[in-house]
Automatic annotation (TrEMBL):
Enzyme Commission number(s) of this protein: 2.3.1.47
PANTHER family: CLASS II AMINOTRANSFERASE/8-AMINO-7-OXONONANOATE SYNTHASE, LD36009P
Subunit structure: Homodimer.
SUPFAM superfamilies, per database record: PLP-dependent transferases
Gene Ontology biological process: biotin biosynthetic process
Domain of life: Bacteria
Protein name: 8-amino-7-ketopelargonate synthase
UniProt keyword Protein biosynthesis present: no
Top EC group: transferase
Amino acid sequence: MFDYSVFAKELKELEENGLLVRIKTLESPQGAWLTINGKKVLNMCSNNYLGFAFRDELKSAAIDAIKKWGVGPGAVRTIAGTLSVHDDLERELAEFKKVEATLVLQSGFNANQAVIPAITTAEDAILSDELNHASIIDGVRLSKAKRYVWKHRDAEDLEEKLKQAREEGARRLLVITDGVFSMDGDLAPLPEIVDKCEKYGAMLMVDDAHGEGVLGSHGRGIVDHFDLHGRVDIEVGTLSKAFGVVGGFVAGKKELIDYLKQKARPFLFSSSLSPAETGAALAAVRILQNDDTPVKKLWENARYFKEKMQAMGFDTGHSETPITPVMLYDAKLSSQFSVRLFEEGIFAQSIGYPTVPKGKARIRVMISAAHTKEDLDFALDKFEKVGRELGVLK
Ligand code: PMP
């Protein structure tokens, strides 16, 4: 029998270091307020940026899709066929993103596993920002290409690595960056990265999971934000955050998408999104195409909360988006802060190593358009109370 005490020992160590994640069970939907263990708490953890996870139009679209298509896709699309609702979502998503085509996958995580190994071989080089998301890192690990890691948001260091990769004989160069870095909320310097990629003939891929529905006009993402349409080869996105549902996608040229349909393993070997998810995501795209009010509300809320937190004396890092890290650095303090907030009626998780580097623990506050001003004032009040109590605020 395997000796499971090795796992128990590691779990205990995590607990002792304030790094054990305790998953909460919700007794309510992902709204602005949640019920957890019978207690009503303000939700400051979810990526439901626009409040779409519980929006009536999306719920109705999911129910209609179930009535029309049932609950399961049958098998992988290359074998069982594509439901026309998948085609509708991919076409309308492409129109929304202003690209030629999109391919929808089961998650944003899977979208990175799909695209990176499919388009690179051992003859190629992949260049990745040092703080790229875990799903990019794992996607890169699945490729046989040589890896180069460049300093976070440093286009000059990227150029050095591009030169090096060329000198070392790489055939194809693939540069990958997060659009929005999910733990700090800072943006990739995309215009500079585009210039470097054009100079060295590299393909550029941006994972815009936290930019979709957040940045750019109507939430079209970071490419729209910087007006770089046509100059970024591959956009990876998620339907699991601002779009309020679950799923991921790749957006780009028709040839790229046609190629991925033949080569991308999560597309070829794993069943597609269910009809309900697909129908709901299509409804989300249609809302955003016609109405940018939720995106405007999200930004109004984010600015209000961040300004007030900074005025109180909290260190909120250098976020440029609604992701608001409340930097506490020490993992135990951060964990204690989160526990106290919960007791005060706020659900805001502490994030520590390995999700963020050691010594950079924080409470990551996720602002949503679903929050009212009263909700935010309630949160500010509680942050101030706990901040003083734990000596974070003087
Ligand atoms: N990429 C980035 C940058 C992310 O932050 C996330 C979600 N944490 C993902 C991909 C994965 O998205 P999904 O939850 O749809 O798998």
